[in-house]
Specification:
Layout lengths: L11 H4 L2 H14 L4 H10 L4 H13 L5 H14 L4 H10 L4 H9 L4 H13 L7 H14 L3 H7 L6
Length: 162
């Protein structure tokens, strides 16, 4: 016995109707931003025909109702607010189906990653950088888990050597 909503199957006419696909896409976009690839996958999962979905998504992008660059920027801002680093953010952007050029541009517009790593370390562990190796290693692992590179972690831990 399964709890939850059963997926409604679309009839064949609605699944192939561009108007129905557009309404479904706009309903999803009203809730949050989507990358083009994410929106296509979501609509196909709902039962809409893939060729029609791709056409409608292209029209939505041409009408500026769907913009991968805008999506990438908003996702970067949201994840930076959560204290995540560029490696983890780029992985999430790649999973959303964005191109490497879009990912690089979105990360370039992001904050100073070294300062963000230092701030995230201070928020979690306090202002003092420990001298004991086990405590330092714990903080370094935490920053790496958050998606900061070795240079960012080194800077956050007080190694500012060139």
């Amino acid at each position: 016995m399964a709890f939850g909503r059963a997926a409604k199957r679309l009839d064949e006419h609605r699944a192939n109707s561009a108007d129905a696909v557009r309404l479904g896409a706009l309903a999803l976009l009203a809730r949050r931003e989507y990358a083009s690839a994410e929106l296509i996958a979501a609509l196909v999962r709902k039962g809409y025909a893939a060729p029609v979905v791709k056409e409608v998504v292209a029209v939505l992008a041409a009408d500026h109702l769907l913009d991968d660059t805008r999506y990438a920027g908003s996702l970067v801002r949201m994840l930076v607010g959560r204290g995540l680093g560029p490696l983890r953010i780029s992985r999430q952007l790649r999973e959303a189906g964005l191109a490497d050029e879009q990912i690089a541009a979105a990360l370039e517009e992001g904050p100073d990653w070294q300062e963000l790593a230092a701030e995230v370390r201070r928020r979690k562990f306090g202002a003092d950088v420990p001298h004991a190796w086990p405590a330092r290693a714990k903080q370094m692992r935490f920053l790496q888990y958050r998606g900061f590179s070795g240079d960012h972690v080194s800077h956050a831990m007080g190694h500012n050597d060139p």
